[in-house]
Amino acid sequence: MILIKDVSILPMTAPEDFIAKGYIIIDGARIVEISEGQAPDGNRFRQVINAGGMVAMPGLINTHTHAAMTLLRGYADDLPLMEWLQQKIWPMEEKLTAEDCYWGTMLAAAEMIKSGTTCFADMYFHMDQVAAAVEKSGLRACLCQGMIDGPNGEAAFTRSQQLFSDWHGQAQGRINVMLGPHAPHTCSPQYLKRVINLSEQLGIGIHIHIAETQGEYEDIFKQYGKSPVSHLQEVGLFARPVLAAHCVFLNDDDIGILAQHSVGVAHNPESNMKLASGIARVPEMLEAGITVGLGTDGASSNNNLDMIQELRSCSFLHKVNRKDPQLIPAYQALEMATVNGAHALRWEGIGTLKPGMLADIILVDFEKPHLYPRYQTEGLLAYSALASDVDTVLVNGKVLMQGRQLTTIDEKEVFRQVEQIVNRLISSI
Ligand SMILES: [Zn+2]
Fold first, then answer.
1. 225 with 80, same domain?
2. How many angstroms is it from 246 CA to the middle of ligand 1?
3. Which residues surround ligand 1, an ion (CB under 5 A)?
């Protein structure tokens, strides 16, 4: 058992559940006790973490990323989405080997742990290597093979099924597999129907990009006479559990459809800003009762995987967009990065801290000039904290970082491997 003592606790169950000083007891993968006051005697614990001056909260959940794209971070910036993809990203991605994706994901894992992320939803390729990196790093992840209708469309089905049989529920239950049809503009209705059938057959959810750009919205409208959301409804996609990334271009009916079918939305404000895609109607989605989580998208359109920055950007973006400082207050932004993310991924047992929940916990060191004075913990976490304030990270009851030292990843080795990969990629263009 592990004891975390002398710690402030923001469990994200309700704002009033904040504990100014208390302790957390972890047995195996789960939290067994959270309480106010003096911790019990430390002798009976395998490990005691003295967390004086720190705040414990649920690990952050990144609901949409492409982890191995860390390899392309900074390779091509300041371009429109389709030009960026077609001329820069896709040609480079063709050169990525399975081993490259392993090291790219390890780089992402190191960055995520060091910025307080404990769970991420990933869509990419060579996903067996991504899964191996998840297993090694100790993180939790929802993984899917990106599926694009076309020459590799059939192979994507085979790989998705393989990923499911090899990895679903593996790594001590830290890996869930989903199906990942890329988007309505890259997958025909026939192809999507086959994805829907397979998802039903395997009993798993679907992760897809929807309405990321105005161009996509217009293309779908031209082709099918409908918005992307209403087109996908007609195809039958929302009969399955769906995690929808972006949803930037939605009309009122679309919002109603997403709410009616309990679609989880992954909002990626920084990627949408950097690619100048647009501003998702997040306040309206939340108002309609849609579960909106947060994602960074790939590191090459962000350009980092820092969820603390992301939740601050989310709050500030919607405030300024609507000229309403009351929109997305601090606690709600934190909810989007934790409990909403868990619901969007339909992952039971994460997103809040209470007895019975999985021990995915971060300890944020508040002994920093920018975290004084202490009027309100949630405001400090949402608006003042930095990724580098995250001191300790646990996933599934296992310590992945303590005192900012990673326990499962050799950072120097990751940097060395990534440098080698990038030298090879650059010399091949
Ligand atoms: Zn994406």
1. yes
2. 8
3. 297
